[in-house]
Design brief:
By secondary structure, this protein is mainly alpha-helical. Helix content is about 60%, strand content about 0%. The protein has a three-stranded mixed beta sheet, with helices on one face.
Length: about 675
């Protein structure tokens, strides 16, 4: 990743122009200057130039696309959404893009139609993805911080937001309590080179001589930003790491007075050293939390639930009784205080993302921690769930509102295991949920189950699930997006892999054909994507799925007009071009199934590669597909198809007089 400075320069005097003008950075910024001039002189040529920018680059061309969104002549208000959707989620949240992004949004916001501003807000509230190896509690806090920063900056700069700003900021501060508006005032700052980075200093010797009754007050007094530049001082974090008993004793003394300061408990419970605490200390912490009243527990339920999850991973037997009491206390608290258990992920005006929200909710942490209980490990088939453990699971499922749905996500995720150990309980408590009329509960159930969807259930469980699975798949229209790829994978795997014991089919050809016909374009595309991906895998899996491609296309794929859309035609063509060895066989199968495609519906990098590719080996078949699929208007053709037409004539000179190639060249030259 190249850390390219913002295209819109900063007026910060500490930033030198030297770095902006040298090497690759200088070339990119020079290109931007020339492009801006082109926008002024010939906007149509500028649009064609922008259309040639790669869409899978999150660095240079993502930055240019973000910056180019400033120009209303290039991107009219009504086209802003479509243009900006080409900026990926990773690029949207890249800190190096943030200055150009925010300044572009500020400039365009007043005139943009409401659907465009609503979509931008939805992308902001969605937040970034979790980084690899990033601790969950750190992800939740950092993500909430970033979202709050952008919302505040836009509001501060006069952008009229559609969302309830005060409500969203309140929720975000729940997850990132240290955030305050002054942190966001310079969100549009440039991240170009400056000397040094902010570090946290945890030196805490000044606390060791303090009476326990004054430790927290002293830590609060001397903590924060010091007189040194770029240094934060957090002495209590240092005390929690190296002197946990003293830190806990200070917390216990405050607890005797009914005080459970959130900042202090968060630092103590989030300390990396908590995982190494012995059983006695873990029990003491748990007892202290159990003794907190509801008012105190409401302030610390998030860090407590995170600690509960992390500390149970290797739970000593001596801790099981106390931790059962703690789980019961937390679940009882959330029953009486449902608003205290919301997810750290802000939903905003988006549809619920049940998996992410459940992962980042207190109930989700508790539900995951229950699976660490040694009493439920190594259970045999039909052995039944341990009564005490089962009661805690049922307590989590019975929580009101979204909290119960968060628990449901983690129970349906383990559906196959629950059915293996206790099929009767599974039928009564989990499968019965599929009879509900509550759409959100159903979606939470399916989100959990589809989380690990490629592991097929036992044949008996599948037969119980099958009617609901086919109904769910058939309803995957354009509007429904969550879980679609996983659902498509489960349906496809169920069709392709019969019961290993009896050979009985799970989903028949006719059943799959009906699903594919009833479902929307995007579901059908997901099925093709899964089929292509699995057939490319090494070993047994790839060899298993390769022959099933032709069977699916020839015997199952619907031939009705409703399924022969530009979108699905493009996906079928890409499937054929994905495997040189099977190109002729697969292309034979798709020819009756495809129709005209449209711009940006198809990407075929393989036809632009070096010598000896599919075009060189099969020029006549490639021509047949292109003639059938390319629309009349050549301005809507995919990128560099003209080069492919030239390559066809070179690969087989006799095709130079073929009427199909002549017609395609005519359209291209007449554009």
């Amino acid at each position: 990743m190249l850390d390219i400075p913002p295209v819109i320069p900063s007026d910060d005097p500490d930033i030198s122009d030297y770095e902006r003008n040298k090497g690759f950075t200088g070339a990119v910024l020079s290109y931007a200057t020339l492009f801006e001039r082109l926008v002024e002189l010939d906007v149509e040529k500028a649009r064609r130039e922008a259309a040639s920018w790669p869409k899978d680059d999150d660095n240079v061309f993502a930055r240019l696309r973000i910056w180019a969104g400033r120009f209303k002549t290039l991107v009219p208000d009504e086209n802003f959404n479509e243009f900006f959707e080409l900026v990926s989620r990773d690029a949207f949240w890249n800190i190096w893009h943030q200055r150009d992004l925010l300044l572009t949004l500020q400039e365009r916001w007043p005139a943009l139609p409401m659907p465009a501003t609503r979509r931008i807000e939805a992308r902001i509230l969605e937040g970034r993805e979790r980084w690899e190896n990033e601790a969950e509690h750190e992800f939740v806090q950092r993500s909430a911080w970033s979202i709050a920063e952008r919302l505040y900056w836009l509001c501060f700069k006069g952008c009229n937001l559609n969302v309830n700003y005060d409500e969203e900021i309140k929720r975000l501060q729940h997850a990132a309590p240290d955030w305050s508006p002054e942190h966001a005032e310079n969100a549009d700052r440039s991240w170009e080179s400056r000397s040094g980075t902010v570090r946290t200093e945890t030196e805490h010797s000044g606390l060791l001589s303090e009476p326990l009754s004054k430790v927290l007050a002293k830590a609060r007094e001397i903590g924060g930003r010091t007189g040194l530049p770029l240094v934060d001082y957090d002495p209590f974090a240092g005390l929690c790491a190296s002197h946990p008993v003293m830190a806990l004793s200070a917390l216990r003394l405050e607890a005797k007075h009914g005080e459970y300061p959130e900042w202090a408990w968060r630092r103590f419970l989030h300390s990396k050293n908590r995982k190494n605490d012995n059983g006695r200390l873990k029990n003491f912490i748990a007892k202290l939390v159990i003794s907190a009243d509801d008012k105190a527990l409401k302030g610390i339920v998030y860090p407590v639930s995170e600690w509960f999850l992390s500390t149970t991973e290797k739970l000593p037997d001596e801790c099981v009784p106390i931790f059962e009491r703690l789980a019961t206390r937390l679940l009882g608290f959330l029953t009486d205080n449902p608003d205290a258990g919301g997810s750290g992920v802000v939903r905003g005006n988006r549809d619920p993302d049940w998996a992410t929200e459940a992962l980042n909710s207190p109930v989700g942490k508790i539900a995951q921690a229950l699976y660490h209980d040694p009493r439920q490990q190594n259970l045999e088939e039909n052995q039944g769930l341990p009564a005490e453990w089962r009661a805690m699971v049922e307590g989590a499922l019975a929580l009101p509102g979204d909290n119960g749905r968060f628990a449901l996500v983690f129970c349906s995720y383990k559906l196959n295991w629950f059915h293996y150990v206790d099929s009767k309980w599974t039928q009564e408590k989990l499968l019965s949920v599929l009879r509900t009329n509550n759409a959100e509960t159903l979606e939470a159930w399916w989100t959990g189950y589809l989380w690990d969807a490629r592991k097929l259930p036992s044949f008996d469980l599948f037969q119980a699930l099958k009617p609901d699975l086919l109904m769910k798949a058939s309803g995957q229209t354009y509007e429904e997006q969550s879980n679609r790829d996983k659902l498509a994978g489960l349906v496809l795997a169920s069709w392709g892999r019969p019961d290993p014991k009896t050979g009985a089919e799970r989903i028949s050809d006719d059943e799959l054909r009906k699903v594919l016909l009833d479902a929307g374009d995007l579901f059908r595309s997901s099925v093709l994507w899964q089929l292509e991906r699995w057939s490319k895998e090494d070993g047994e899996s790839g060899e298993f799925w390769k022959p099933l491609r032709e069977r699916l296309l020839r015997q199952v794929w619907p031939i009705q007009k409703a399924a022969r859309t530009p979108h699905n035609s493009a996906r079928l063509i890409e499937l054929a071009f994905s495997d040189e060895d099977s190109f002729i066989a697969i292309s034979d199968a798709i020819l009756p199934l495809i129709s005209k495609i449209e711009r940006d519906h198809i990407i075929l990098p393989c036809i632009r590669r070096g010598e000896g590719n599919i075009v060189d080996k099969n020029p006549e078949r490639v021509l047949e597909i292109l003639h059938l699929a390319l629309p009349e208007n050549a301005n809507s053709w995919p990128y560099e198809i003209d080069a492919t037409l030239n390559r066809i004539a070179i690969a087989d000179p006799s095709l130079g007089v073929d009427s199909r190639l002549i017609e395609l060249n005519r359209r291209w030259n007449s554009r």
